[in-house]
Structure formats: C-alpha cells, structure tokens
Write a structure and sequence with these properties.
Two copies of one chain form a homodimer. The first copy, chain A, is an alpha/beta fold. In chain A, about 35% of the residues lie in helices and about 25% in strands.
C-alpha cells in the first residue's frame, strides 16, 4: 500500500464531466489499496470570474482581500470533487488549506508554505478516507487566508507529499508529460520518460508551464518522486527524479515564456549602490527579477535592463516611479512585447557548442536576440514575443531533427 | 460611540453597484464615530449557481460537502464588500465564520450557533477596523465548516451582536421595515415604528420573511434592540424591542407563508405512541413540524395532518416511507399546494372576537379553511396556495380599513 498525492489543475475540473473523470482516476487509485490525497485548483474560469468581480469594485484592492476572494475558487472545486467521489461510493472528505494545516508566510497573493501541520490529514487518512485538499491556499500564523501565487497548487501538492512522506506525487495536466517542446506547437515534440530535478527546474523556471519551479525545488530537497501525466488519457507520464536515465539526446527540452516584461533603465549615473538599492526595493515589493543585464553607457552613465513576470509589471512600475528621483536615470522603458526562449539539458555541462548552435538556428530564422542569460544546464534568449513560436520551432529542428 | 452590527442580505450585495451602496452605508455609520461589524450573505444568485453545480454532479451529496460548497458564497461577498470599503478609504478586514469565532453544532446545512469566540473580533475592533463577517456559516468543534440553514445570516448578525454586547443590530432588507402586510402585495400596508419581540416572533415564524425566528428569539433572550430597515432608502425602519409602543390598532400584522407543505396520514390505528414515534423520527432528521392536527377517524383509526417547510418535504417523505410498515396507516397524502395565512397582535391576549372576524373575512372572500392553529397572540389558517394573496388582502381590509 502506497500513499499517493495527486494534483489536478483547473482545466482538469473545468466542468461536471471533467470532475467526474477526476473522481474516477482518484477512486481507481484508492480501490487499488492506496491511500490518496488529492490537491485541486479552482475550476477553469472561476479565478477569472472572481478577478472580474474585483476589478469592477476596486482594481487596487488589498492583497489580503484578494486572497480572501480567490480562495473561494478552490473551496468550490474541492466540494464538487468530493461530491463526485461520494457518488462513486468511496469515503471522502474535502479540506480547505487551513484545515489541511498548510501554514504559510504572510506575503499575501504570493505566500510561501512554511510547514504542513499534518495532524488532521493523518487522522482522515487513518479513517481510510480519500482526502481532497484545496490547492493554492494556506493560512498565516495570524489566521488569515493566503494564496501561493502562480503554480501554487503544484507547490501545495508537493509540500503535502513531503509532509506526509508520500511515496509518489502525481501532477495531472492536459499534456501527457514533459516534452522536448510544447507539443501543441511543435508536432515533432517528443515525450520524455524521465527527467532530472535540475533539468525540470530549468524548464519550469523558463515557462514550460508544466511544473512550477517552487514545487520542483521542494521535491528535489525531499527527494520526492514526481510524475507528470495527463488526466485525459491513461498513458504513463514523465517521471521527475534525482538520477534520471540519461537520454541519448543532449538537451532535454526547449521552453518558451511569454509572460514576461522587460524594463530598461537608461542613463543611470555610475554611482555605487544605485542598482543594488533599486533591486532591493523591488525585492521588498515581492518582485522577482529574472535576467539582469548591465551595460556601460556614455558620459559616465550605465544602462540596466531586467525582466519580470507580467503580473509583477504594475508593482515594478510603482517601485521604479517612486525611486526615479534618487535613481537619476534619463529614462525608463517598459516593454511587454518580449518572450524568453531557452534550451535546457544536463548534457550542456560537459559538452560545448550549444550556444553557437542555438544562435545559428535563430540567425537562420531571422530572429533578433535582445538579451542572453546562461546557467550550467540552460541558455535563454530574450526575443520579440511575435518571434517566439518560430524560434521554438527553429530550435527544435536544429536540436532534435 | 456605539457598537453597531449591520446585516445585509443577498439582494443588497447582488452586484457591484449595490456592494458600493452597502459600503457607503457602512462607512457613513463608521465615520459618525461608531464601531461597526457587518454581516453579509452571499450575493444574489451565487447560492443558486452553486446548488446548480452540485445538482449536476451529485444531487444526493453529503450535507458536509454541501456546506463546504455553499460557504464559498459568503466568502466572495465579504471580500468584495471589504474591497469597496477600502476604496472609500476606511480600515477594514473581512472574516469568515470560523475566523470570527462562530462555533456551531455539527448539524450540517442546519447548524445552530453554540457560542461566539469574540477574541479576534475584539482585536480587530480595537484596531479601529470595520469588520465584515460572513453570515450563514460557522465551524464545528472538529474544525468543519457548517451553514446555519434558512435565515442564517440574520441569526449570525444577532448572535455576533449579543456576543459583542452591541448597542444595536440593524437588519437591512429590501423593504423599509415591518409592515401590517406584505407591502409588495397590499398597497395600503402600513409600516410599524415599533413592534415587540413576541409579535415579531409570530410574524417571523409565519413566513413574513422579514426576520428569521431564531434571530428574534436570540435578540429577545439578550434584550438586544433590532432595527429592520431598507438598504435602498435612508428612511427609519421598524424597531423590535421588549416594551414596544402600543399601537392604536389591535393586530400588528398579517403574514403569509407559501413555503409550506401538508402531510396527511390517514387511518392510523389508534395505538398509543405511534404518532410520537413518527414525530421523534422526523425530529431526528431535523424536520421541524409546524401545525399538527389529529382527528378521530372511523373504525378505531385516526388521521394525523401536519405541515413542514417545503425544503424539508423530501426528508419528510423519506422518514415516513421508512416508517410506513410500523405506522400501519391506510395512506399518506403530500400536498404542496397550501399556504398559511396568519394575523398577529399582542392585543389578542386581552380582546376577543379576532377569530370570528378573521373567519368572516375569509368566508366573505369565498376562501376555504383547511386547518386552524392559534396561540395567545396569533391565529393561523391553512388554505389553498392560490387563495393566499386574496386572503391577505381580505384580512387587511377587514382589520385595517
């Protein structure tokens, strides 16, 4: 008997038919003699509908109240899934984030899980019940409801699996696993049987949209085996684990991220500490910086360019505008028409020539590179958003054909 | 400085415009130097939409999961109201039932408030914040979300007001106060300035739909002054308190209740205890019986007729069908086409002739009376549902013209 945590995203529970489908997967796992904890996101459009209601009333609502509002979304989906499981006839109980003991920081709309108080979860499992937990949400030490920000339900699932010492954490999505590129865009994209945490981490960070990086980091830390698979087919998915089978190919995937904006701060006086102060103010506002590029400008000034996720652009603008007087920059340019395309592969550490092959493929496709960032196992380029799909296709041809 | 609890029903917060209107009423009260706790129901159609989602998946879902689902409704409305108040610029915090310390029994979908743990509420009020509380919901000692059943938000508001020793509890509705009859139906209906708890209690019990009886009972017990008033006009409402001003008229109102069904159990053997057993089984299923009539039948049998609210009819049928073998009744008739019409007034205790005047008015209007029930301050009759509006009009003419 294994303890398995299964996570289903919003599209997997978008309507009654899909909820029933998920109930079938969950109860099949349960009937095989496993203990099952299920983490669910809000139904398909619920979050958008709730945000629409908010915008109509107060676009600048506090983050605390935005969390209160959005957390209702998963409350609806856990209750509906529990009802569908009741119909099949298996014992089940739904739990909100706070009931499942998901304790987080107080950083509303972007909270981090501090620990899981597993007492109630264990009690429900001891009673042989399937436990449905609301993903994406938790509670602070002060008893306030928080949400975890993008990809939060993945993190909920992995954190619960780690807290409960689960044997496996299955992340159900609308694709069959991790691919060498987005299979909806690249028809030759190949599904991987296995991938290492580090490779998955780079893909997640790079907007491959399969798994959120925080969840992969956590799984790596606790050496928890993840499986990414589809809720719509019964095909085996991709296993994410420490010692992944070395695939014959040298790069494991190509990722695209269009949820990104570039900020260029032009003509900053070359005084020590100015950039540091700006970035620490951004960090204080919970803005995560991605690629940073600093270049020497003219007349003793320098230019600083960096990228943030689009949903942080408003916060970023606010911080920069407040900081402008001390920054003494000549101008600031905000550009949302950008995309990041990356190649990822553990093979890069020991082999050379990846960068030049990548740049050549992009050059042949007539795509202009704006910024470059590299790590041991990935190379990312910033390009125009409209070039992104063509870039992924060109790179897939270059590396996998 | 007073502590005022204000309650707004679902229609008062049905859309963004109405939410803003409620925010204005609340902040006006706050700006006059009062401490304000606000209790809100789910937005207009939210509850119906959630029930529709449930019915599509599992019409026989457990009561626990139905509570989990429905409680999301108030979560949405409290967050939106808090956001509207933030926009006006007053400090505010929204609290779910469990955060506000509303502890209930475990009787899901029809829980009763056991006590209010006011610690967090008091802390928020000490911080000078307007506190928005989700009505209709609470939490059991086991940490499960419950709902309070019909009229639950009124009860939440009164219970919070009692727990906090509030000076006044204002119940905002879509009418301007308590009327001698439904003002939407009877154009000569008069608004009362004051009414006693007992009179209000009879009106509430009788389906006047202004205040739920549990909330009035609670207010009476703690001698809490209630005001029933409209969220759409600024007119003064009706005060409900112990020593109400004696109005010149002898009856204070006429009430109609069409949310009622009659069950007739025909030909029960005249054995002791059979009726008692049936009613105790109904009580165990949380079915409240209203009028009971027992009559001697033929051949040593008797007939028992009683009424329940329509939403309890399914539960009632189930209990009766299970109990049929032991009941040995000849047949059972379920009739939903009934209405209860009542006259209420403290004056009845000391004056006679009300019953004959009532029956005369109904006779003149050619309305047949099926059952009669009386108390010290009210007389109720059961009639055909289609006669109800005509009956109220006839009684209003008879008593108030």
């Amino acid at each position: 008997m294994s303890l398995i945590v299964q996570k289903f995203g919003g599209s997997s529970v978008a309507n009654a038919e899909r909820v029933n489908n998920v109930a079938r997967i969950v109860t099949d796992t349960y009937k095989k003699g496993n203990k099952v904890v299920v983490v669910v996101s809000a139904q398909g459009d619920t979050t958008d509908e709730l945000i629409e209601k908010q915008m109509e009333i107060n676009p600048n609502a506090s983050k605390r109240e935005r969390d209160m509002l959005l957390a209702a979304g998963e409350q609806i989906s856990i209750a509906l899934l529990a009802m569908a499981i009741e119909k099949i006839g298996c014992p089940v109980v739904s739990l909100l984030g706070w009931q499942a003991g998901v304790r987080t920081t107080s950083s509303h709309t972007n909270a981090r899980i501090k620990f899981i108080d597993c007492e109630r979860l264990k009690r429900e499992l001891d009673h042989n019940r399937i436990v449905i937990v609301a993903g994406f949400q938790g509670i602070t030490r002060y008893g306030d409801v928080t949400t975890l920000g993008r990809g939060g339900s993945d993190t909920s699932a992995v954190a619960l699996a780690c807290g409960l010492h689960a044997d496996l954490c299955q992340i159900y999505t609308d694709v069959e696993g991790v691919y060498t590129a987005d299979p909806r865009k690249i028809k030759d994209a190949r599904k991987l049987d296995e991938i290492s945490y580090d490779e998955m981490l780079e893909l997640a960070t790079l907007g491959a949209q399969v798994l959120h990086n925080r969840s992969v980091e956590l799984a790596k830390k606790y050496n928890l085996e993840l499986e990414v698979l589809s809720s719509l087919t019964s095909a085996p998915g991709t296993i994410v684990k420490e010692a992944a089978k070395v695939e014959s190919m040298l790069i494991s995937g190509i990722a695209k991220d269009t949820d990104i904006a570039r900020i260029s701060v032009i003509g900053v006086p070359d005084e020590p500490g100015l950039a540091f102060k700006m970035f620490s103010k951004l960090a204080a506002s919970d803005v995560n910086i991605d690629i940073i590029l600093q270049s020497v400008g003219r007349d003793g000034t320098k230019d600083i360019a960096f990228t943030v996720s689009k949903d942080k652009l408003a916060d970023t603008k606010k911080v920069i505008e407040n900081f402008m007087p001390s920054l003494k920059a000549q101008k600031v340019i905000f550009d949302e028409d950008v995309a990041k395309v990356s190649i990822v592969g553990a093979g890069m550490e020991s082999h050379s020539g990846f960068a030049s092959k990548m740049f050549e493929a992009l050059y042949n496709a007539d795509i202009n590179i704006q910024m470059i960032s590299t790590s041991e196992i990935k190379i990312s380029v910033l390009i125009k958003a409209s070039d992104a799909d063509r870039a992924v296709a060109a790179l897939h041809r270059g590396f996998f054909d």
